[in-house]
Design a protein that fits this description.
Elements lengths: L3 H14 L4 E6 L7 H9 L8 H4 L1 H5 L10 E8 L13 E2 L8 H20 L4 E4 L7 H7 L4 E2 L5 E2 L7 E8 L27 H5 L17 H6 L16 E3 L3 H4 L19 H4 L3 H5 L3 H8 L8 H16 L1
Parallel strand pairs: 3-8
Antiparallel strand pairs: 1-2, 2-7, 4-7, 5-6
The structure holds iron/sulfur cluster (2 copies).
One iron/sulfur cluster (SF4) binds next to helix 8 and helix 9.
Length: 320
């Protein structure tokens, strides 16, 4: 029979062993205080074509609706950082997380491994694993679990580790609340923001998408416009694209907390040599079959062949 502190410590150690960089715990409760701000954000049209954000608002605000008897969110952060040259592949720029295995499957598998290990080795529980796969305020739960703070660039920043992370949650009926306030293994309170007076991300954002309070306007964000957005990229952004073909890392790359980012130990997140070695010109002249073969199983599939061609066409327009 383990104490709650021992259970929490064991889960954290196992999470790190499985390749996660940080693990914390937060008690499940409805995020009522986020509702007005989120509603205003949606009403202002900033969700763009991401209608799913609005549709699942109640679920998003209450993880208790996702798992019966939910008591605890186990928040897990996994670094995807591997050093890569700035302009890759060739003369184009893809977000650094785009060049390897898609994180959904990789992290879900590790989350399930952790959940099963807890169940069989530590304590009986039920729970579900999520990684960007359900309406959950992932960064807010990570913040509440004491992993870090949400920076002015909208990313979760983990002290001494940076912000190149994917987040995963296990929502479970395991009740660890009795040890939350006092345990040194658990984070008793959220970390305050350490952005201070820094505005590097806001100043460096090529399209002025960051509001300064940790929120962004997706309709101005290169990441959203190159991946989620359907249709043409608006003319107003010509000259601001800085060679990005899929995603954008600018507001993370300039962050002082990413000076020495922790490198991932998850080998599936190492960039594929086949992509690093190819030129942007080759990619934009590929037929659909070759494109699918090159990017099979990577996040780039989300934009699709036509989406990537559209993005290259926009860059060509910029260059003319
Ligand atoms: S991802 Fe790029 S475009 Fe989007 S907010 Fe960050 S710097 Fe701006
Ligand atoms: S660049 Fe500065 S303001 Fe932006 S997230 Fe990093 S520390 Fe915060």
């Amino acid at each position: 029979m383990f104490s709650n502190n021992e259970i929490a410590g064991a889960i954290r150690r196992k999470a790190l062993e499985l390749g996660f960089s940080a693990c914390g715990f937060a008690s499940v409760e409805e995020l009522t205080e986020l509702r007005p701000g989120f509603q205003e954000w949606v009403d202002s049209g900033r969700a763009g074509e991401m209608g799913y954000l609005e549709r699942n608002m109640d679920l998003r605000l209450d993880p208790g609706k996702l798992v019966d008897g939910a008591k605890t969110v186990i928040s897990l952060a996994a670094s995807y950082y591997y050093p890569i040259p700035q302009h890759i592949p060739g003369n184009s720029r893809f977000s650094r997380y785009a060049l390897s295995e898609d994180y959904h499957k990789v992290l879900k598998a590790r989350g399930h491994e952790l959940l099963n290990w807890i169940k069989h080795e530590i304590v009986p529980l039920t729970g579900r694993v999520f990684t960007d796969s359900a309406p959950i305020f992932e960064r807010e739960w990570a913040r509440r679990a004491g992993l870090g703070w949400i920076g002015k660039n909208g990313c979760l920043i983990i002290p001494k580790q940076g912000s190149y992370f994917f987040l995963t949650e296990i929502i479970t009926d395991l009740d660890l609340s009795s040890c939350l306030p006092s345990s040194r293994l658990l984070s008793s309170s959220s970390l305050p923001s350490s952005c201070g007076t820094c505005t590097r991300c806001i100043d460096a954002c090529p399209t002025r998408a960051l509001a300064g309070d940790g929120s962004l306007d997706p309709c101005k964000c290169i990441s959203y416009l190159t991946i989620e957005h359907k249709g043409a990229i608006p003319d107003e952004f010509e000259g601001q694209w800085n060679d990005w073909v899929f995603g954008c890392d600018v507001c993370q790359d300039v962050c002082p907390y990413n000076r020495k980012p922790v490198q991932s130990t998850i080998t599936e997140f190492a960039p594929r040599e086949s992509i690093l070695d190819i030129s942007g010109d080759t990619i934009k002249n590929m037929d659909e079959a070759a494109f699918k073969q090159l990017f099979d199983g990577t996040p780039v599939e989300r934009a699709g062949w036509l989406g990537i061609l559209r993005n290259f066409a926009f860059l060509n327009r910029e260059a003319e």
